[in-house]
Amino acid sequence: MKIFGAMYDKTMEWSKHRFAAFWLSFVSFIEAIFFPIPPDVMLIPMSMSAPKRALRLALYTALASTLGGMIGYAIGYYAFDLVQIYILKLGYQAHWQQAIEWFKAWGVLVVFVAGFSPIPYKVFTIAAGVMQMAFLPFVLTAFISRAARFLLVAKLAAWGGERFAAKLRKSIEYIGWGVVVLAVVAYFILR
After folding, report:
1. Contact 36, 1 (CB under 8 A)
2. Nearest in space to 147 (alpha carbons), one of 72, 36, 39, 73
3. What are 119-169's pLDDT values in tens digits?
4. pTM, 2 dp
5. Residue 168 and residue 163: Cα distance in Å, rounded?
6. Following CA atoms 178, 41, 43, 34 in sequence, which dihedral angle do they give, to the nearest 10 degrees?
7. What share of the chain is helix, strand, coil (3-state, %, to 5)?
8. Distance between CA 91 and CA 87 in Å, rounded?
9. Which of 2, 99, 147, 161 is the most exposed place for a label (fewest CB within 10 A)?
10. 189 near 93, Cβ under 8 Å?
């Protein structure tokens, strides 16, 4: 069954849309608060299809993610009791505990690590508010971390460019089904 090729083609088509940068920024913003899909899913194809815009797109992504992180911080600081149930329902309890332990041990440095961590970024933004971390160091560290990550991702994708996009398209079915298999295996192992 070939479904990933069509999804790949559609994603590459959307990455060239005139409002793609807006949607990339929007996804980056909401991902730092509640959205489960990281902006890399949009940044990579956009950077491959427009390598000259990759660094600008990474900057948009970092700025929007930092602004979203500020909202996540405010939620943790002012309204954690209202959203705590959702952390449990969404299955972030283990990630939450890990983030809190890291904040206790390393303070603001955790925000820098969070920009590269596989733990969802929203967990760290809300945890920073709950831990009442100093706001300005949080914002500065969040921006530096997110900018470093997204600049790296965008630059690597732009470096590959259209050539890499074409090679990736040839293997996308194998990659897609491989990810599905790994996700199922991880689900059963981590349960």
Report:
1. no
2. 39
3. 788 888 998 998 899 999 999 999 999 999 999 999 998 998 777 777 777
4. 0.80
5. 9
6. -150
7. 85, 0, 15
8. 6
9. 2
10. no
